[in-house]
Design a protein that fits this description.
Helices cover about 60% and strands about 0% of the residues. It is an all-alpha fold. Helix 4 packs across helix 7. The radius of gyration is 21 Å and the shape is globular. The termini are far apart. About 30% of the residues are buried.
Length: about 280
């Protein structure tokens, strides 16, 4: 069997195992502790399952080559003494540091997907649903997932984590990605979780549900794991005990509306005066 096909089939099988595991965890939890009363089966579920496999397969295959190039480049520009020092750290400390570094990149990648209109066109797919549950996590355009992961994993690689053949360090980016992926399902879940002290340190469903708000406090809470970055960069929003009243995309925030507004000619009063041609 060709190596690429074998890797593709192995990835698909691991996604199926993930789906079974996540279903066994989150479906009972949402039934027992759901914030909103809603059925497990719903319209668009088949589409979301397709997104689950598509966003698991396509980014993995597309990112393999660029991440290998980035890793090789990082090993050339980062001093060997620094790399050896990183590898010598306890594995738990490597994971914590890499998670903090990667989350910084994920935060800015995610934020740019919102604030740059042509990138929002791709990310809007993720914000279309008008209800929240765990499966919404992977309802995303592959371009969205690829670019956001590139931001985070590039920093992790350049920081010295993830050199192939470098002992435990080569596993660190994988562990960081697994933690971030699982946490993504948790924060999208329909769970009425109230953890006042905990959600100051780590993101929770209530924290991230505000990110999906339709009309109030749009473009907030970009962090997927560490809310400290939202605090640092002025995008933190978490009113005590409150949840967003609705989810989805307001008409004025739809990609086609924002793109059209971006390309509209400026009003005459705002246009620079045209230079007069000499007589």
């Amino acid at each position: 069997m060709a190596p690429d096909l074998e890797h593709y089939l192995r990835t698909a099988m691991s996604l199926f195992v993930w789906l079974v595991l996540l279903t066994a965890i989150f479906v009972p939890l949402e039934r027992l502790a759901g914030r909103h009363r809603q059925t497990t089966l719903r319209p668009q579920m088949l589409a979301d399952l397709a997104y689950f496999f598509m966003t698991g397969l396509i980014p993995t295959l597309v990112l393999a080559m660029p991440m290998a190039v980035i890793g090789a480049t990082g090993r050339q520009i980062v001093p060997e003494a620094y790399t050896l020092w990183i590898i010598g750290l306890p594995i738990w400390l490597q994971i914590l540091v890499a998670l903090a570094i990667g989350e910084f990149g994920f935060y800015w990648g995610h934020r740019l997907m919102h604030e740059v209109p042509w990138l929002w066109r791709f990310h809007a797919t993720h914000h279309e649903p008008q209800r929240m549950d765990w499966l919404i996590n992977t309802r995303a355009h592959p371009v969205d997932i690829i670019l956001t992961r590139m931001f985070g994993l590039t920093l992790v690689n350049i920081a010295g984590f993830g050199s192939p053949g470098a002992g435990s360090g080569s596993l660190v980016p994988v562990i960081v990605l697994i933690i971030g992926t699982f946490w993504g399902f948790f924060i999208h879940a329909n769970l009425n979780v109230s953890l006042p002290w905990f959600e100051q340190l780590l993101s929770t469903p209530r924290f991230h549900h505000w990110h999906h708000s339709r009309d109030e406090q749009v473009n907030r809470n970009y962090a997927s794991v560490l809310p400290i970055y939202d605090r640092m960069f002025g995008t933190f929003h978490l009113p005590a005990k409150a949840w967003p009243p609705s989810y989805g995309i307001a008409p004025e925030n739809r990609p086609e509306v924002l793109l059209a507004a971006e390309h509209m000619p400026a009003p005459a009063a705002e246009r620079p005066a045209e230079p007069k041609t000499p007589a």
